[in-house]
């Protein structure tokens, strides 16, 4: 594995191997001394063209626990203009001696360009690009699901995960549909038709507009997607109230889930919109655990990309 | 002035014959050619070559004035000559915009001075392409540039009242309104064709309906007011259907397709390489098939390049930050040969129709797109259809490198291009006009 | 023609482990506070075997010392664990990415214990160096000792084994292969010359051939 750009890059075995490595990493994180020397002397650049304190901190913690040096490069707000910014920044990073670049970018495909345009030759980890992919989020979600639903081993064969919300603009939804399907899970997307992309019928999942119907179908986990505030004013749905009523996870819907079913949310949550406080704070909710798991998964990704002989390996 | 004796060439791919070009015209054909040729005439062994009337592009961006870093009238028309063209229509989205007689005359004059191909400036429909007020269309029509094609290309004349007025007003001087059909509200931030691929790779979609809705409206407007409508770079199966319907109703509409919409699909966007970013976007394989079928059955009248050179920095970046457009003058004929001739739906006469006769007629370019016959202007191109070449933008004549066909093998090679009897391309080599070398005869 | 010769048969391996078990008991005056940690992969079954033998021998020994204990001998168990050194290796970027195995410490941990590291082959000493670093992150043992089934020489670090099954002079071009029933189906230690093809069944050739170096 040379880069991690999309969960479609991972076949089942590669995905399971990453999750297994993440389990091993998680085990080290219960020790008093959490720092491991594996990536000592390596420099990892967090290149964030979009604000995301949570993701950046998670990657930073992961890199530091593996003893890598971390440089945070926040390009947002600086004088970067169109086009030249990504290439010039990439070449700056090369000059600095970055051994890996973790990139968050508002433009879909920017990490792909960084990896393949010939500007730099380091591994690239996609930390979220536009409406495209957020593979480490999907991995941490799968990791969380696997811990609860499969004893932290193997894949998610036969499990049913319902993903609810703004699928159209969501890189989390795209990454999760791909990865969960690869891991053998059944995925159902639930959204108002305005928030589903044209072409979604080709995805490896079922699609419905009816949340209540979806929740009656042997659900093992419900993943609630964040609804961006700006969607509310651009006519994708009539009002917050109507969205919450039709697509929000509230106490009543929570009560209809079977006992083992989990509630996931990538955060940050809009309480009262896509998720009620009752659902967010219920024992089924893995929201906080997801954050902790994020560090282990990102350690596994950085380790897998960097702690190996890079010669002769293609994209995985 | 010495001329050229073109031996054993196949005009429009038909029976081989000889041509004698002299004093800007075809002076003899067949046996007469050799007998009338003198020792001073250059003899071209054209055995295996096809002679076509010089190609006429209805849709070229020459970028001058304003973006001479990406193309100039000189480099763009040299690229045109290399692609077999003898006339090109230069789009109006320059800086300043070609919305006055002054700007169109300047572009026309630059073309004349460069000497590679006749430049027919396209006038903007609205002032500054802003879509608010009509530009002085009449002044441009009566200028030295004799503008007949008007377009806000790059922008859609979206306001239906303004479009109606443009279609009406241009009737006074036999003009044609060439519409870039793109419903703006349906294409806010649009990056690529909206469909399976865009859903997967997360780029904002440019739905087919945004093109089709405007075309449907415009053909009805053209019917209502009786003006001449030309639909630019039609790209979807639905658009082909609407044009077919409109023509069946007798509406005065013509349509063009680009080489890239005849060959490439939205699957290429998966690479996120902005060289494949173009407006209208590359569509699906079904759309490509429909556009080819529409070209084959005459629903689509012409192939036009939409040659859109861009600076390296505007393509060597992430997709969303990149400019729309691809170069096309030097690959157009090759693509048409591959997808239409080699697939069996076109003869070389059909190629001449869609790349020369019809575009000249639409643009009211009188001395191009003529038959290959005695007394006709010697605007010709000689193509070797058996050649195959791998496209390398670095060796092209255009000043830009954004060819989506880079690295692809395409058939055919333009060996000679003649503009009024002068070889602008002589055995694949570009030859400066004598007026520019100081070597006056 | 590559040649492979077996240098330790199954019964020799067994005898060597029994001897080492006794040496450990003797040197540490019994099995109290001992913790055996195997270095994956083949150090782990070796540690488990050794722990069994130490327990057996210690139980017999205790019986001998206290023959009049009417309750009979208390069953002796020696805690065993395994310690993954992958993240501590100094050649981490020179090899293909390795999978991690879990580190398992016995209940009671390693603080103030005598930790006996167990590996199959001692060669450059780099694995042991990594294991010592890993140990330091896990706790503070009172002392650390090292068992190796085979010491093939060519040390690159100031490290020596406290207990050696067999000293095996080798050329660096040779490969030492340890096979254990728990992993490979049978016990044997063999040497092959450089031209010998790697065992096709081996899941991690670099680690079957030369221990965990």
What does this structure look like?
The complex is a heterotrimer of chains A (316), B (441) and C (213). Chain A has 316 residues and is an alpha/beta fold. Chain A folds into two domains: 7-133 and 291-307, Aspartate/ornithine carbamoyltransferase (Rossmann fold, 3-Layer(aba) Sandwich), CATH 3.40.50.1370; 135-286, 3-Layer(aba) Sandwich (Rossmann fold), CATH 3.40.50. Helices cover 39% and strands 14% of the residues of chain A. Chain A contains twelve helices and nine strands. Chain A has helices at residues 12-28, 53-65, 84-96, 110-116, 135-149, 171-182, 211-215, 229-232, 240-247, 251-255, 277-280, 287-306; strands spanning 43-48, 69-74, 100-105, 124-129, 160-164, 186-190, 206-208, 221-224, 262-264. By secondary structure, chain B is of the alpha/beta class. In chain B, α7 runs parallel beside α8. Chain C has a single domain (4-61, 75-192), classed as 3-Layer(aba) Sandwich (Rossmann fold). In chain C, 30% of the residues lie in helices and 22% in strands. Chain C is built from five helices and eight strands; from the N terminus they run βαβαββαβββαβα. Chain C has helices at residues 10-28, 43-65, 126-138, 181-184, 205-209; strands at residues 4-8, 34-38, 80-82, 114-122, 143-151, 163-167, 175-179, 188-192. Chains in contact: A-B, A-C. At the A-B interface, α3 and α4 of A face α6 of B.
Q: From the 3D structure, determine the CATH topology of chain C.
A: Rossmann fold
Shape of chain C: globular
Number of domains of chain B: 2
| Proportion in helices of chain B | 25-40%
Total helical elements of chain B: 13
Mean pLDDT over all positions of chain C: 85
**Count of separate DSSP helical elements of chain C:** 5
Question: Could you give the order of strands across the largest sheet of chain C?
Answer: 3-2-4-5-6
CATH architecture of the largest domain in chain B: Alpha-Beta Barrel
The total of beta strands of chain C comes to 8
Show the largest interface: A-B, 29 and 26 residues
Supply the CATH superfamily name of the largest domain in chain B.
Metal-dependent hydrolases
Helix content of chain C: 25-40%
Largest sheet of chain C: 5 strands, parallel
Distance between the termini of chain B: 7 Å
Family (chain C): Belongs to the purine/pyrimidine phosphoribosyltransferase family. PyrR subfamily.
Motif (PRPP-binding) (chain C): 115-127
Keywords (chain C): Glycosyltransferase, Transcription, Transcription regulation, Transferase
EC number (chain C): 2.4.2.9
């Amino acid at each position: 594995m040379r880069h991690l750009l999309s969960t479609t890059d991972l076949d089942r075995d590669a995905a399971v191997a990453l999750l297994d490595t993440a389990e091993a990493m998680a085990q080290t994180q219960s020790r008093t001394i959490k720092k491991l020397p594996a990536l000592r002397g390596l420099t990892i650049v967090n290149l964030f063209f979009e604000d995301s304190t949570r993701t950046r901190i998670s990657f930073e913690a992961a890199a530091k626990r593996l003893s890598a040096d971390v440089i945070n490069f926040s390009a947002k707000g600086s004088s970067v203009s169109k086009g030249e910014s990504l290439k010039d920044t990439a070449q700056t990073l090369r000059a600095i001696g970055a051994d890996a670049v973790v990139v968050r970018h508002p433009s879909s495909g920017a990490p792909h360009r960084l990896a393949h345009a010939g500007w730099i030759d380091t591994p690239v980890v996609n930390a979220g690009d536009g409406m495209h992919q957020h593979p480490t989020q999907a991995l941490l979600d799968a990791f969380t699901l696997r811990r609860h639903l499969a004893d932290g081993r193997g894949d998610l064969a036969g499990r049913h995960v319902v993903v609810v919300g703004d699928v159209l603009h969501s890189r989390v939804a795209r990454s999760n549909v791909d990865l969960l399907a690869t891991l053998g899970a059944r995925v159902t997307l639930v959204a108002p038709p305005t928030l589903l992309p044209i072409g979604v019928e080709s995805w490896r999942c079922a699609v419905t507009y009816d949340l209540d119907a979806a929740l009656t179908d042997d659900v093992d986990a419900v993943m609630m997607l964040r609804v961006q505030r700006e969607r509310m004013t651009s006519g994708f749905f009539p009002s917050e109230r109507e969205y919450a009523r039709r697509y929000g996870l509230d106490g009543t819907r929570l009560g209809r889930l079977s006992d083992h079913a989990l509630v996931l949310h990538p955060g940050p949550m809009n309480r009262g919109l896509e998720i009620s406080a009752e659902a967010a704070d219920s024992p089924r909710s893995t929201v906080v655990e997801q954050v902790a798991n994020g560090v282990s998964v990102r350690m596994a990704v950085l380790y897998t990309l960097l702690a190996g002989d890079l010669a002769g390996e293609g994209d995985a | 002035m010495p001329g050229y004796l073109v031996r054993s060439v196949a005009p429009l791919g038909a029976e081989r014959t000889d041509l004698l070009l002299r004093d800007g015209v075809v002076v003899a054909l067949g046996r007469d050619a050799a007998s009338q040729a003198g020792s001073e005439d250059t003899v071209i062994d054209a055995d295996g070559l096809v002679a076509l009337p010089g190609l006429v592009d209805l849709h070229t961006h020459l970028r001058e004035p304003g973006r001479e870093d990406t193309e100039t009238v000189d480099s763009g028309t040299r690229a045109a000559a290399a692609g077999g063209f003898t006339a090109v229509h230069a789009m109006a989205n320059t800086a300043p915009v070609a919305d006055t007689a002054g700007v169109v005359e300047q572009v026309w004059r630059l073309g004349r001075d460069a000497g590679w191909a006749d430049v027919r400036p396209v006038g903007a429909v609205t002032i500054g392409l802003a879509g608010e007020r009509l530009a002085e269309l009449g002044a441009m029509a009566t200028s030295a540039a004799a503008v007949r094609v008007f377009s806000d290309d790059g922008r859609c004349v979206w306001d239906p009242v303004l479009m109606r007025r443009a279609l009406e007003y241009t009737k006074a001087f036999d003009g044609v309104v060439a519409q870039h059909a793109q419903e703006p509200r349906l294409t806010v931030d649009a990056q690529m064709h909206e469909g399976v691929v865009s859903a997967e790779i997360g780029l904002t979609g440019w739905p087919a309906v945004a093109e089709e809705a405007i075309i449907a409206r415009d053909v009805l407007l053209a019917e209502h007011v009786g003006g001449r409508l030309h639909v630019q770079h039609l790209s979807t199966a639905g658009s082909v259907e609407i044009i077919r319907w409109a023509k069946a109703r007798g509406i005065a509409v013509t349509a063009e397709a680009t080489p890239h919409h005849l060959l490439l699909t939205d699957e290429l966007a998966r690479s996120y390489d902005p060289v494949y970013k173009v407006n209208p976007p590359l569509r699906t394989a079904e759309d490509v098939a429909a556009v080819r079928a529409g070209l084959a059955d005459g629903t689509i009248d012409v192939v036009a390049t939409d040659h859109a050179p861009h600076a390296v920095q505007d393509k060597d970046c992430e997709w969303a930050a990149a400019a729309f457009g691809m170069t096309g003058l030097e690959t157009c004929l090759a693509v048409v040969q591959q997808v239409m001739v080699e697939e069996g739906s076109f003869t070389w006469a059909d190629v001449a129709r869609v790349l020369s006769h019809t575009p000249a007629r639409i643009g009211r370019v009188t001395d191009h797109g003529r038959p290959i016959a005695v007394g006709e202007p010697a605007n010709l191109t000689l193509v070797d259809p058996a050649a195959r070449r791998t496209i390398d933008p670095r060796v092209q004549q255009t000043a830009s490198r954004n060819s989506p066909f880079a690295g692809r093998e395409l058939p055919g090679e333009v060996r000679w291009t003649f503009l009024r009897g002068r070889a602008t391309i002589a055995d694949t080599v570009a030859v400066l006009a004598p007026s520019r070398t100081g070597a006056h005869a | 023609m590559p040649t492979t010769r077996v240098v330790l048969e199954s019964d020799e391996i067994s005898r060597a482990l029994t001897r080492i078990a006794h040496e450990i008991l003797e040197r540490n005056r019994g099995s109290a506070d001992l913790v055996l940690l195997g270095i994956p992969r083949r150090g782990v079954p070796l540690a488990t075997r050794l722990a069994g033998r130490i327990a057996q021998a210690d139980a017999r020994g205790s019986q001998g010392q206290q023959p009049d204990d009417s309750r009979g001998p208390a069953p002796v168990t020696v805690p065993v664990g395994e310690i993954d050194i992958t993240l501590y290796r100094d050649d981490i970027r020179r090899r293909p990415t390795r999978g991690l195995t879990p580190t398992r410490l016995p209940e009671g941990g390693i603080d103030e214990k005598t930790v006996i590291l167990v590996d199959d082959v001692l060669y450059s000493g780099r694995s042991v160096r990594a294991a010592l670093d890993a140990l330091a992150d896990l706790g503070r043992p009172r002392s650390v000792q090292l068992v190796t089934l085979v010491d093939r020489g060519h040390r690159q670090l100031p490290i020596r084994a406290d207990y050696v099954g067999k000293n095996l002079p080798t050329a660096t071009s040779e490969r030492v292969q340890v096979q254990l029933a728990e992993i490979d189906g049978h016990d044997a230690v063999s040497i092959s010359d450089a031209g010998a093809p790697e065992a096709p069944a081996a899941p991690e050739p670099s680690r079957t051939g030369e221990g965990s170096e």
